[in-house]
């Protein structure tokens, strides 16, 4: 028995399809991945728009028929259960027809771009949303690219993929906020053009060592002690 667990989990056609996709995907550059992510996003938006428009018309069909063809008073939604069934059926049918049309249309548009054309035609048409997420991720970080299914081994099932988070730069103070006071020589704090020494006496005969930082800032700016 082969050590490749995919051969036991996938049918022969599914395994061959995964190999075909890997071979096409491994040839793509970063620019190709960004382009495919954009193509998939636009195609999914068009499919969704057509599907929900058709579903809305299907849901409204019984009510429209009752109001304009049979005449007479009618409720806002005529036969709600029937309207629900026609709406769901229209959604499924619209998604299937629109998906088939826009998938083939994009395939024709990509014929002049061999690498993207091969990758596009290696995708399963009914799983375009998953491929969109895949190219969205790999266009940002190529370490998430799929591996060769033929080299997959049992220990790969338990492999953990971890990328440590990137260090974020120190956020700049928001408008109206002052930066933290800079430290002067010998532990004194510089605030504006003045320096407050914790050992010196502050305003009103009070030692600055007994004041909070906020009170010392107020004193340095002429507001006095609370």
In a few lines, what is going on in this structure?
By secondary structure, this protein is mainly alpha-helical. It has 7 helices and 3 strands; from the N terminus they run ααααααβββα.
Number of strands: 3
Report strand order across the widest sheet.
1-2-3
Q: What is the helix fraction of residues, given as a range?
A: 40-55%
- Roughly what fraction of the amino acids lie in strands? under 5%
Which runs of at least 5 residues are low in confidence (pLDDT < 50)?
Answer: 181-196, 198-205
Radius of gyration: 33 Å
Largest sheet: 3 strands, antiparallel
Count of spatially separate domains: 2
Tell me the distance between the termini.
Answer: 82 Å
Rounded mean pLDDT is 79
How many helical stretches?
A: 7
* Class by alpha and beta content: mainly alpha
What is the element string, with H for helices and E for strands?
HHHHHHEEEH
Molecular shape: flat
Q: How would you describe this protein?
A:
The protein is mainly alpha-helical. The protein has two domains: about 15-145, no CATH class; about 180-220, no CATH class. The chain has seven helices and three strands, in the order H-H-H-H-H-H-E-E-E-H. It has helices spanning about 5-10, 10-25, 30-70, 80-110, 115-120, 130-140, 215-220, and strands at about 180-185, 190, 195. A three-stranded antiparallel beta sheet has the order 1-2-3, with helices on one face. Strand 2 (about 190) and strand 3 (about 195) form a beta hairpin. Helix 3 (about 30-70) packs antiparallel against helix 6 (about 130-140). The chain is flat. The protein starts with 5 loop residues before the first helix and ends in a 6-residue tail after the last helix. Mean pLDDT is about 80; it is low at about 180-195 and about 200-205.
């Amino acid at each position: 028995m082969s050590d490749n667990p995919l051969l036991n989990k996938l049918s022969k056609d599914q395994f061959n399809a995964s190999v075909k996709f890997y071979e096409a995907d491994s040839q793509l550059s970063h620019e190709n991945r960004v382009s495919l992510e954009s193509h998939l996003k636009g195609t999914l938006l068009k499919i969704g728009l057509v599907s929900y428009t058709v579903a809305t018309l299907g849901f409204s069909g019984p009510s429209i028929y009752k109001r304009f063809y049979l005449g007479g008073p009618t409720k806002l939604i005529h036969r709600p259960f029937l309207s629900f069934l026609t709406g769901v059926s229209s959604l499924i049918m619209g998604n299937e027809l629109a998906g088939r049309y826009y998938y083939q249309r994009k395939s024709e548009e990509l014929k002049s771009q061999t690498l993207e054309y091969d990758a596009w035609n290696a995708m399963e048409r009914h799983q375009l949303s998953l491929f969109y997420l895949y190219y969205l991720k790999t266009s940002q970080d190529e370490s998430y690219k799929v591996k060769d299914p033929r080299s997959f081994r049992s220990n790969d099932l338990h492999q953990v993929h971890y990328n440590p988070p990137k260090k974020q730069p120190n956020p700049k103070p928001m408008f109206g906020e002052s930066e933290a006071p800079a430290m002067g020589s010998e532990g004194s704090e510089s605030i504006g053009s003045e320096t407050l020494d914790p050992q010196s006496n502050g305003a009103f005969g009070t030692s600055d060592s007994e004041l909070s930082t906020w009170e010392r800032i107020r004193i340095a700016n002429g507001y006095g002690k609370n």
